[in-house]
Design a protein that fits this description.
The chain is built from 19 helices and six strands. The protein has 458 residues and is mainly alpha-helical. The longest helix is centred in the first third of the chain and has 37 residues. The radius of gyration is 31 Å and the shape is elongated. Bound molecules: arginine.
Amino acid sequence: MAQLWGGRFTKETDQLVYNFNASISFDKKFYKQDIIGSIAHVTMLAKQNILTEAEKEEIIEGLNSILSDVENGKLEITEEYEDIHSFVEANLIKRIGDAGKKLHTGRSRNDQVALDMKLYVRDEISETDELIKELLEALLVIMKEHTETFMPGFTHLQKAQPITLAHHIGAYFEMFKRDRLRMSDIYKRMNYCPLGSGALAGTTYPLDREYTASLLDFEGATRNSMDSVSDRDYVIELLSALSTVMMHLSRFSEEIIIWNTNEYRFVELDDAYSTGSSIMPQKKNPDIAELVRGKTGRVYGALMSILTTMKGIPLAYNKDMQEDKELTFDAIDTVKGCLALFTGMVKTMTFNKQVMEESAKGGFTNATDVADYLVNKGVPFRDAHSISGRLVLLCIEKNCTLDDLSLEEFKSEHALFEADIYEAISLFTCVNKRETLGAPGKRVMEQVISEYETYLSK
Ligand code: ARG
C-alpha cells in the first residue's frame, strides 16, 4: 500500500478498505493525461517563481521518463498504489528525490482528477467524432451509388411510398451528422481548466490559472473552485450524446437485421461480418448488428448510473465521484468499438437492387400518386384519395398491382384517367417527381449529396 496521506494516521488501512477505496485498476487508463497535466502545472509554478527553473526541469524530465517507460513497458502500473496520481508522484520521487516532492504544490487530487478526466474525455470526444465521420464517409459512398435504387419506404413497418436507398441512408447521415454536432458542443462547453481550484477553495499560492489553461489548450480557466472539483456535467452530457449515437446505431442495426432476413433479402452481409450456427449449416447470422443493438443498453446504463450517482452529492468533492470513471471508460470503448465495426459492416454489405425494386412495386406504394394524378386534373384530394382506395381494393380482389389495371378499370372509377396514368404512377416517376428539398427525387437528392460532400471535406 503506497499512500500519499499517511501523516495523520496511526493505524494501517485495512486491506479490504484499501482495495475498496483504490482506483488504480481503472484510472491507470489516464496515466498520460495525468503526466501532461502535471507538466503544465510545474511549468506554471516555475513561471510564478513558486519553483525554480532547475526544479521544474528536473521534474519535467522525471515525468517524461515515467511516461516513456510506461509506454514502452519498462514501468508497470501496479496495484500497490492507490490511484494513478499516487503512482506518478511516488515514481517521480523515486527517480528524482526531493524535487519530486514539490510537484503537488498548490494542487489537490480533487482538481487533479477533475483535470485528468476532462483531458481524457476531450481526447475521446475527438476520437469518437473521427469514427462517426468515417461512418458518414461510408454512408455517402452508398448514397452516391444508389440514387436510382428504388425501395419501399415504410411507416408502421408497412410499405408506404417508394423511395431510394440513397434517401433511406441519407436519413442516417442526418442523424450521425447531429451526433457530431453534439460532440463539438460538449467539447466547447467543457473546455475550461479546473486546475488551480485546489481541494475546493483555491490556494494561497499565486497561481496563474489562465496560463496553465492555455498550456493545456483550454479556452480558459473555470470560475468557481467548488464547482470545478465537483462538476461532472460534461461526463453526463457525453454519456447522453453517446447514448444517442448508440440509439442511432441500434435503429440502423435493426433495419439491417430485417433487411437481411430470408423474407426481405434486401441486403447481403459480407461473410467477414456475419457468423454461422453450430448446428444449422445454412445459417448466416447478422451477429454484429445484433451485438451493436444489444450493447446500446450498456451505454444507456452508464448514463443512468452517473445521473443517479451525482444526484445527492453535496458540494464539493465526494468520493462518490470516483464512480464516474469505469462506466465512462466502458461506454466510450463500447461506442468506439461499435462504430468501427458498424462502419466495416456497412462498407462490405451489398444491396439486392432487384429485390428492393420488386418490393417497392408491391404494397401499392404508388396509391398516393394515383390520387395526386387526379388532383392535378382538378379533383379534390379527399375524393381522389377514396377513388384511389377503391382501386387498391379492386387490385386486392384481383391480386394485382395498380400498374396492372386496364385503362377501362381506371376509367370506371373516374373519367379523367387517361393512358398517361401508367407513366404517372411508375416507380421512376413516383420517386423522381418528389423534388421538394429533402425528398428522394434524384435531382434534389444529388443537390443534398453534394452538400454532404462539402461538409465531409472540411
Ligand atoms: N481517485 C479519486 C477519484 O477518482 C481521485 C481524487 C481523490 N481525492 C480525494 N480527496 N480522495 O475521484
